[in-house]
Amino acid sequence: MDVVAFGRSDHEQESFYLVRAYKDRAHLESEQNALYSSDAWRQGPRESLIACLDDYLNTLLWLSEQSVEDLRSNNGLGVSLVA
Q1: Among the listed ranges 1-5, 9-13, 16-20, 56-60, which one has the minimum average pLDDT value?
Q2: Which pTM does this prediction carry?
Q3: Which end of the chain is more exposed for a tag (fewer CB within 10 A), N or C?
Q4: Long-range pairs for 63-66: beta carbons < 8 A, 24 or more residues apart
């Protein structure tokens, strides 16, 4: 999973964000299906993380590779966190 940026919201102290990059929509769907259907997720942190959520929002953006790298650089992530 390529985590581009993450952290606490600047305008809401109880809100956080996570930005991930994918090659295309098919890549997004296959990666997320693999993660969220895995035993590691379901038997691992899933319940404790979901219990912390009051609400969530997904937004899909189409960005150039340079824009993704700019987001990564501005968040202090100089390298991809791809596993």
Answers
A1: 9-13
A2: 0.77
A3: C
A4: none
